[in-house]
Amino acid sequence: MSPGPARRLVPSYLATGGVGAPEHSRFEELTALQATGRSALPHHTPAHQRLLNLVSDGGLTVMEIAGYLRLPVGVVKMLAAQLVSDGHLRAAAPLPDALAPAINAGRPDKALLEEVMHGLLAL
Amino acid sequence: MGSSPSSAPVYLPDSNQERVKVLVAGPFGIGKTTMIRTLSEIPSLHTEEVMTDAAAHVDELAVPDKKTTTVAIDFGRLTIAQGRIVLYLFGTPGQRRFKPLWSDYARGALGALVIVDTRRLADSFEVIDLIEESGLDYAVAVNQFPESPEYDEETLRLKLDVEDHTPLVICDARDWDSSLNALRALSAHLVSRAGGSL
């Protein structure tokens, strides 16, 4: 018995011009995004363009972009996935690396925690 | 124009940086947003997350025929270690009914700062339970209001049922030094829990 086609999770009204199903699950709240400088494409919606404009001069996290654009985080992840796949955005994963569930499951790194502590003490 | 950003964005440092988060947890009105505003280097932002009663983490978009709740998450940012680390403070509601959302935000967090108010200690029991269930290490910050009853530390620990090693600090969420002190107490605790040197 063969499994049927996977259910489409992205609703049609947000589908992104038929350019493939974005893998927005690999984006975290703290994934940083910055525009690469390419101009928007015809299939980019006004929401895509607002996102590109926001990060044209510097990087921001998915969470911050959601705050500035007043969009739910899930929507920003989808828009970002499209723009990364089109080459319009660069994405940097936060630590722990979202792509490494084994690391994600463990305790935070000791050296990092020490650096946070010293950083806070130095303020 | 309604669609324009609420303010000019404050970008991340140019250098490569590690972005980490700490939860600032507690019931509504306890001072989470105040503390985040006090500590944040950017005007504090919020997102409004739509959560369905069932399986909210499976699909973040609302399914129309399910009962949905909108939860506002306040957050702020603090750059430390000469720009190498950007610490995010996520204000996280403490109610169990927000657990699906809560689990999402707890994932990858370094730890949590639980804010309590001595006038309504019982309101924080639920959030402390949630944090303990999640396995996150935490510190308790007692947000001191002028009219709050003052308890000694031992009584507070007993009432809140927190372990001896869990830091408990008195703070004023409106005050930078005081709020930073609470965050430092949490961070020292996280280091010691990870077996690092203080």
Write the CATH fold name of chain A. Arc Repressor Mutant, subunit A
CATH C-level label of chain A: Mainly Alpha
* Oligomeric status: heterodimer
Strand content bin of chain B: 25-35%
Quote the beta fraction of chain A. 5-15%
Instruction: Please identify the structural class of chain A as seen in this structure.
Output: mainly alpha
Residue stretches of chain A low in confidence (pLDDT < 50, at least 5 long) are 15-22, 97-105
3D architecture notes:
The complex is a heterodimer of chains A (123) and B (198). In chain A, 38% of the residues lie in helices and 8% in strands. Mean pLDDT of chain A is 80; it is low at 15-22 and 97-105. With 123 residues, chain A is mainly alpha-helical. Chain A has a 3-stranded antiparallel β-sheet. Chain A is elongated, with a radius of gyration of 17 Å. Chain A has a single domain (23-121), classed as Arc Repressor Mutant, subunit A (Orthogonal Bundle). Chain A has helices spanning 46-54, 62-69, 73-85, 101-105, 110-121; strands at residues 32-35, 60-61, 89-92. With 198 residues, chain B is of the alpha/beta class. Chain B has a single domain, classed as Rossmann fold (3-Layer(aba) Sandwich). Helices cover 26% and strands 28% of the residues of chain B. In chain B, strands 2-3-4-1-5-6-7 form a 7-stranded mixed β-sheet, sandwiched between helices. Chain B starts with 17 loop residues before the first strand and ends in a 5-residue tail after the last helix. The chains are: A mainly alpha (123), B alpha/beta (198). Chains A and B meet through helix 1, strand 2, helix 2, helix 3 and helix 5 of A and strand 1, strand 2, strand 3, strand 4 and helix 5 of B.
